[in-house]
Specification:
Blueprint (H helix, E strand, L loop, with lengths): L19 H30 L5 H10 L3 H4 L4 H19 L10 E5 L6 E3 L4 E5 H4 L5 H16 L2 H20 L3 H9 L11 H19 L7 H9 L15 H14 L27
Parallel strand pairs: 1-3
Antiparallel strand pairs: 2-3
Helix pairs in contact: 1-7, 4-6, 6-9, 7-8, 10-11
Length: 288
């Protein structure tokens, strides 16, 4: 029987060769990466699943949202502008093969924001600021058809589903709870956060160009507004449309290529906008 020995333990055997902060940083980075991947996966899954929500339910959800642009009081001229926009929207929608149950509701805002947006339930808002930047109905129709195409592809509810899923996940991780979710839902008055991906934007442009081709026989004037946006992009405060519609130069090139590929010289005349659609700021008079 051998005698019991108490060997001497080497110094530093329980000490990591790397600094503890480095280990912690690596662990934190790995966990953070897993969280980001999980949230993104949930976001894309939600974006896919909400496409199956019946459009009637989307309309019901839209009607429950406190939208500032629905409360705006309209003058007689404003109502006339909205009637014109709605008629133009119906004409374009009829040329875009939308599902039978899908209804488009075009709303007019007298705000001078250079923008138009598609929201939940087939609601589309066109701002006076955008109307004042175009010089033909064709140019206005391109933007309006683009927003209708977003609705047709269910892009607004996809964006909302992804946004809500991300907010729900962040709320669960942060422990804030329902307060953050309520704040997010409460901020949806005009739904400006429904930003669309570049692929969604390109799909909407393609559908809009086809609609112009069916309605007018050509796509002339389609790039006019986006050329205006490109000219203003160097200003300190560019048009709001730039916030959600990136890569303007590439977009103009694609639109121009489509125009040239479907050019019909005998039908290239652009349809002028009715005089009453423009605001007093653009009536041709000198403001000085």
């Amino acid at each position: 029987m051998s005698a019991y020995e108490n060997p001497q333990i080497p110094e530093g055997i329980n000490v990591s060769p790397t600094h503890p902060l480095k280990d912690f940083t690596l662990l934190l980075g790995g966990v953070s990466a897993l969280i980001v991947v999980a949230v993104l996966a949930l976001s894309f899954a939600a974006g896919y699943l909400v496409r199956f929500v019946p459009f009637e339910q989307e309309q019901a959800l839209a009607s429950s949202i406190d939208a500032d642009w629905l409360k705006q009081s309209h003058s007689a001229d404003d109502k006339r502008r909205e009637q014109y926009l709605r008629a133009l929207g119906e004409q374009l929608a009829a040329a875009m093969d939308l599902p039978a149950e899908m209804r488009i509701a075009v709303h007019y805002s007298s705000d001078d924001t250079v923008n138009a947006m598609a929201t939940l339930g087939g609601n589309i808002v066109v701002f006076q600021g955008l109307i004042d930047t175009v010089d033909s109905e064709n140019a206005l129709a391109m933007v309006l058809a683009h927003e209708i195409a977003h609705v047709g592809h269910r892009h607004p509810i996809v964006a909302m589903g992804r946004g809500f899923t991300v907010m729900l996940a962040l709320s669960a991780l942060s422990g804030v709870g329902d307060g953050m979710i309520q704040q997010w839902v409460g901020s949806m008055g005009m739904l400006p956060m429904l930003a669309f991906s570049r692929e969604q934007e390109e799909a909407a442009d393609a559908d809009a160009l086809q609609a112009l081709l069916r309605v007018y026989g050509h796509a002339g004037g389609a790039a006019t507004f986006f050329e205006h946006v490109a000219e203003q992009s160097a200003l300190p405060e560019p048009p709001a449309l730039l916030n959600t519609h990136p890569d303007t130069d590439a977009r103009i090139a694609r639109i121009r290529d489509f125009e040239q590929a479907h050019i019909r010289p005998d039908e290239l005349a652009l349809k002028p906008l009715p005089d009453f659609v423009k605001s007093d700021k653009t009536d041709g008079t000198d403001p000085d």
